[in-house]
C-alpha cells in the first residue's frame, strides 16, 4: 500500500507519545523542567547539525526573510495557537506551564522538517520503498517518548500533521520529483534546521521566537534553487 510508511510513522508517534505521557506521571515538576532544558539543548544540536547541509547562504537568507513575511501575513502562529487553545479546552489543564499548542508546534516541526521526511515520502510514492520512513518511525517514536514526557499531549496531536504532510508528498511524488533535486533538499533541510534551532530556543526560554510564522521558508528553496 502506498501509505504504509506514513501509517507506520503516524503510529510510532502515537505510541511513543502515549509512553511518554505515562512516564510523565512519575516525574516531579522540578525534574520535568530540568529534563525539558536538556532536551532543548539536544534539539538545538539537531538543528545546528542539519543547518550545515546548506550550500548557498543567499538562498537560506532570502528563504527565511521572505518566508517569514508570508507567514506573518497569513498569521500562521495565531491560527495554530487558536487550534491549540480549542484542543486545550477539550483536554485537562496544561501542566508545568506547557500548553497543548506549544507541544504540538514543537513536535510537528521536529517530525516534519528534514530530509528523511521528504526523501522517505518520495520513495514510498515512487517505488513503494518504505524503508526510510520505517527508519524515521523508530527515531520519531523514541523522540516522542522524550518530548511527551516533558511537553504533554500536544506531542501526540502532532502525529496528525505529520501524517498529512508526509501523505501529501507521497500522493504528489510523481509531480514533485523533478523539482526536489539534491541541492533543493539540502537547502530545505538547512532552512528547516534553522527553525528547529528556534524550537530549541523556545523550549529553553518560553516561546521567544514565532517559529510557525517562518514555516513557508522551508518551501521557498524549491523556487529559489531554480532561479539562482
Short summary:
The protein is mostly helical. The chain contains 11 helices and no strands. The mean pLDDT is 84.
Number of strands: 0
Secondary structure category: mainly alpha
Low-confidence stretches: none
Q: Count the domains.
A: 1
Mean pLDDT over all positions:
84
In DSSP terms (H or I, runs of 4 or more residues), the helix count works out at 11
The termini sit apart by: 38 Å
Question: What percentage of amino acids are in beta strands?
Answer: under 5%
- Radius of gyration from CA coordinates: 17 Å
Instruction: Assign a percent range to the helix content.
Output: over 70%
Task: Give the H and E element order.
Answer: HHHHHHHHHHH
Shape: globular
Largest sheet: none
Amino acid at each position: 500500500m502506498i501509505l504504509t510508511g506514513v501509517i507506520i510513522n503516524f503510529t510510532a508517534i502515537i505510541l511513543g507519545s502515549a509512553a511518554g505521557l505515562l512516564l510523565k506521571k512519575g516525574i516531579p515538576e522540578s525534574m520535568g523542567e530540568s529534563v525539558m532544558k536538556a532536551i532543548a539543548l539536544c534539539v538545538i544540536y539537531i538543528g545546528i547539525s542539519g543547518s550545515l547541509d546548506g550550500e548557498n547562504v543567499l538562498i537560506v537568507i532570502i528563504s527565511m526573510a521572505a518566508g517569514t513575511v508570508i507567514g506573518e501575513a497569513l498569521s500562521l502562529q495565531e491560527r495554530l495557537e487558536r487550534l491549540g487553545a480549542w484542543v486545550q479546552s477539550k483536554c485537562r489543564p496544561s501542566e508545568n506551564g506547557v500548553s497543548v499548542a506549544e507541544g504540538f508546534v514543537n513536535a510537528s516541526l521536529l517530525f516534519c522538517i528534514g530530509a528523511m521526511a521528504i526523501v522517505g515520502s518520495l520513495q514510498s510514492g515512487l517505488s513503494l520503498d518504505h524503508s526510510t520512513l520505517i527508519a524515521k518511525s523508530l527515531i520519531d517514536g523514541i523522540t516522542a517518548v522524550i518530548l511527551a514526557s516533558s511537553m504533554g499531549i500536544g506531542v501526540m496531536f502532532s502525529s496528525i500533521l505529520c501524517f498529512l504532510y508526509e501523505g501529501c508528498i507521497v500522493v504528489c511524488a510523481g509531480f514533485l520529483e523533478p523539482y526536489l533535486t539534491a541541492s533543493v533538499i539540502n537547502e530545505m533541510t538547512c532552512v528547516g534546521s534553522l527553525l528547529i534551532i528556534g524550537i530549541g530556543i523556545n523550549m529553553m526560554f518560553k516561546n521567544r521566537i514565532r517559529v510557525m510564522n517562518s514555516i513557508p521558508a522551508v518551501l521557498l528553496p524549491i523556487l529559489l534553487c531554480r532561479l539562482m
